[in-house]
Design brief:
Number of strands of chain B: 9
CATH topology of the largest domain in chain B: Rossmann fold
Distance between the termini of chain A: 32 Å
CATH topology of the largest domain in chain A: TIM Barrel
Shape of chain B: globular
Oligomer: heterodimer
Number of helices of chain A: 15
CATH class of the largest domain in chain A: Alpha Beta
Strand content of chain B: 5-15%
Largest interface: A-B, 21 and 27 residues
Number of domains of chain A: 2
Low-confidence stretches of chain B: none
CATH superfamily of the largest domain in chain A: Metal-dependent hydrolases
CATH architecture of the largest domain in chain A: Alpha-Beta Barrel
Structural class of chain B: alpha/beta
Shape of chain A: globular
Largest sheet of chain B: 5 strands, parallel
CATH class of the largest domain in chain B: Alpha Beta
Helix content of chain B: 25-40%
Number of helices of chain B: 11
Strand content of chain A: 15-25%
Chain lengths: 430, 318
């Protein structure tokens, strides 16, 4: 019998509307009891005085790059980064090589994740075979192997007929279709947000209308089909307004926003003198869009936060701005970036911040976890919310370092990550 | 508004007009004025950069700008060598950064770079010890062009302050536009721009200019008309219908030029598309200072090289 007793934690569990000083007893990988002054002489004890214990944080949007791009990230390095960032579970996108568009690849991902044995990994299958946007992938076989949602992320499902059928067919398995929304004709090879900054910098630019147009289409199709569409990395105020209206009308539309779209704006491209680590898709928008996203979070309109962790090798990022690939890593900075901004600066209640990273994503994709109710998996994120530290990319567990947050001083860091009752990561004490 | 020229440039590089103060711009123009006199001597050469090496890295086709830099370098007695992208290692798959680091290992003092991607000079300036001079980066900046345009206006008018300058053409793809607007606005001139609405980037007015759709509205009463090249090679045919229609609505013709002040200067950064954005009667007419711009280009580039090399005072005395 494997027993762990977490002592003196401030337990914040939105699923039980719980926020009080409690001990947590874990037996055989499950939460056994929550209570004051618990004792168990067979259990190993973890003193969590000064820490917050929350249901394990779940990132529903990460690129772990394996198979095919192991020089950027492997499943093993990706989950090491995840647990060091406070995540107990990650969902990985399908744009690998080969694409995760069949059960064999889903199975490979699951077995590599099992071998790494750190965070849970839930594969997201491709909507279309080879991400080609032409033929529907075998949703059923992938669901049976462990896929939890479908997405062609990295690109949109451009063909509206295919998107319609995907939203219909996915209902057989009660899973959402996650769309990366951009109208590629409007994108027109743009590399940053279109606005005064792109005009000044002379970079080809992506209008917010490119995202708005595709979100509008997806909402129309959600209504047509009754299917669940989830908008990945929503980044515009227009899209946020459309989601607001769609939800008010009772449609099955949900959305996530990323830490970088909340915390940064297109000004970062200029301020960094064309640092390619600011290049991401969707692009860092102007400050008015970021503000609208923050309001969306505060209003409860945003279903969850997600990193869109997108590792790239330093050699790939050391290119011309318009040539370098889109994407930034996020697993190891997501917590402090969002805590510092949302809870400290914007006064989002701690409970809601935790909900956005744990309870909500679990419910959205029907994943185990997101709660510390007795009987649930002992996936727990311990948070040291008073810790202030500087982001040092060289210390990342991820194989890649492409972050625009290097050197930032942030408050609110993970202290330890517990998966299935096992402490899989703990910050070294100095 | 009047500025005391700065004593020296703060940066080791010239990546754009944007980082320059009015005082620094003044310093470059004043120095260029002195450089102009060198070209009028029988021996057009001073030893200011003797023993220094300049690498001209041109990743994009250029005749005028590259030759202008080369002439400037030779007149300052620098040793210079030029690469065009077709002859460099880039065609063998070497990355830009590696190319630059390899060249720097040969210890040049200056790297003059033209590149189709905005920001490349900035990226290189961060990692190289050499002084990086931007000779045009995509649609971003072309600082020495704006400086030579300013020098040309100043030579003719005595000052930039209070001048009303119209800039017309393909506003979307023009680095000349961006650098000129930044410089002229910073030096107290008024800038008006005009172009097809489908070639006007969002927020252009925030650079410091009035934006018009019709050339007629833009050039009424101005002191200077600067035409931009329509960059047919940078765009498909969705942005505007045809060069013919562009001529109809935007070309600087003798009739349209009459709307400007009687002695308004006509400028063009070259290469001109005659019969598209500018009528030959205007390009070759009495108000045209287009070839003076080219002459001043050498003086401005000499000034920039001289100042970045740490020069001050009298470059012409030795």
């Amino acid at each position: 019998m494997n027993r762990l007793l977490i002592k003196h934690a401030r337990v914040v569990d939105p699923s039980q509307r719980l926020d009080e000083g409690l001990d947590i007893l874990i037996v055989d990988g499950k939460v056994a009891r929550l209570g004051e002054r618990l004792e168990d002489k067979d259990a190993s004890v973890l003193d969590a005085a000064g820490l917050v214990a929350a249901p394990g944080f779940i990132d529903i949007h990460a690129h772990l790059r394996e198979p095919g791009f192991e020089y950027k990230e492997t499943i093993a390095s990706g989950v090491a980064a995840a647990v060091a960032g406070g995540f107990t579970a990650v969902c990985c996108m399908a744009n690998t090589q080969p694409v995760n568009d069949c059960a064999a690849v889903t199975e490979l991902i699951r077995s590599r994740a099992a071998a790494a044995d750190l965070a849970h990994v839930y594969p997201i299958g491709a909507v279309s075979k080879g991400l080609a946007g032409e033929e529907l992938a075998e949703f059923g076989e992938m669901v049976q192997t462990g896929a939890v949602a479908f997405s062609d992320d990295g690109k949109p499902v451009h063909n509206s007929y295919l998107m319609r059928r995907a939203l219909e067919y996915a209902q057989l398995f009660d899973v959402p279709v996650i769309d990366h929304c951009e109208d590629l004709d409007l994108v027109a090879k743009g590399v940053m947000h279109e606005g005064a900054v792109s005009t000044r910098l002379g970079l080809r630019a992506i209008p917010s209308a490119a995202e708005d147009a595709m979100v509008a289409r997806d909402i129309v199709l959600a209504e047509l089909t009754g299917g669940h569409v989830h908008i990945a990395h929503l980044s515009t105020k227009g899209a946020m307004e459309m989601v607001r209206t769609a939800k008010a009308r009772g449609l099955l539309v949900s959305c996530e926003v990323t830490p970088h779209h909340l915390a940064l704006s297109d000004q970062a491209v200029a301020d960094s003198d064309f640092d390619t680590n600011t290049k991401v898709n969707p692009p860092l928008r102007s400050a008015d869009h970021a503000e609208a996203l923050i309001h969306g979070v505060m209003d409860g309109l945003v279903d969850c936060l997600a990193t869109d962790h997108a590792p790239h090798h330093a050699d790939e990022k050391a290119q011309e701005y318009d040539v370098a690939p889109f994407g930034m890593v996020g697993l190891e900075t997501a917590l402090p970036v969002t805590y510092d901004l949302l809870v400290l600066k914007r006064k989002l209640p701690l409970r809601l911040w935790i909900q956005l990273w744990s309870t909500n994503p679990a419910r959205l994709l029907k994943l185990p976890g997101g709660t510390l109710k007795p009987g649930s998996p002992a996936d727990i994120t311990l948070l040291h919310l008073d810790r202030t530290a500087v982001v040092i990319p060289e210390k990342f567990r991820s194989l890649s370092r492409n972050t625009p947050f290097g050197g930032r001083r942030l408050r609110g860091w993970p202290a330890a990550t517990i998966v299935g009752g096992r402490v899989v990561w703990q910050r070294e004490r100095r | 508004m009047s500025f005391q020229p700065a004593q020296r440039l703060r940066s080791k590089d010239l990546v754009g007009i944007d980082p320059l103060t009015p005082e620094e711009i003044q310093l470059i123009l004043d120095t260029a004025d002195q450089m102009r006199s060198i070209a009028e001597r029988p021996i057009k050469k001073v030893p200011a950069l003797r023993g220094m090496t300049v690498v001209n890295l041109f990743f994009e086709a250029s005749t005028r700008t590259r030759f202008s830099f080369e002439v400037a370098e030779k007149r300052l007695s620098a040793d210079s060598l030029s690469f065009a992208s077709s002859t460099s290692a880039v065609t063998k798959g070497e990355t830009l950064i590696d190319t630059a680091l390899n060249l720097e290992a040969m210890q040049p003092d200056f790297i003059v770079i033209r590149h189709q991607s905005p920001g490349v000079p900035h990226q290189l300036a961060k990692i190289l010890r050499s002084a990086v001079i931007n000779a045009g980066d995509g649609a971003h900046e072309h600082p020495t062009q704006a400086l030579l345009d300013a020098l040309t206006i100043r030579c003719r008018r005595g000052t930039l302050e209070g001048q009303v300058v119209a800039i017309i053409g393909d506003l979307q793809h023009s680095r000349v536009l961006r650098s000129n607007v930044l410089l002229l606005a910073r030096m107290g001139a008024t800038v008006r721009v005009a172009g097809p609405p489908s070639l006007i980037p969002i927020g252009l007015e925030k650079l410091g200019c009035e934006v018009h759709h019709r050339i007629e509205d833009c050039i009424a009463g101005v002191d200077v008309v600067m035409m931009l090249r329509i960059q047919l090679e940078r765009q498909g045919r969705m942005n505007f219908p045809s060069p013919r229609e562009f001529y109809d609505f935007y070309a600087l013709t003798p009739e349209r030029l009459k709307l400007a002040k009687k002695d308004a200067l006509v400028m063009h950064p070259g290469p001109m598309n005659r019969g598209v954005e500018i009528d030959s009667r205007v390009a070759d007419g009495p108000q045209s200072v287009i070839l003076e711009q080219v002459t001043n280009g050498v003086a401005v580039r000499m000034a920039v090289l001289y100042l970045l090399a740490g020069g001050s005072g009298e470059p012409t005395a030795h």
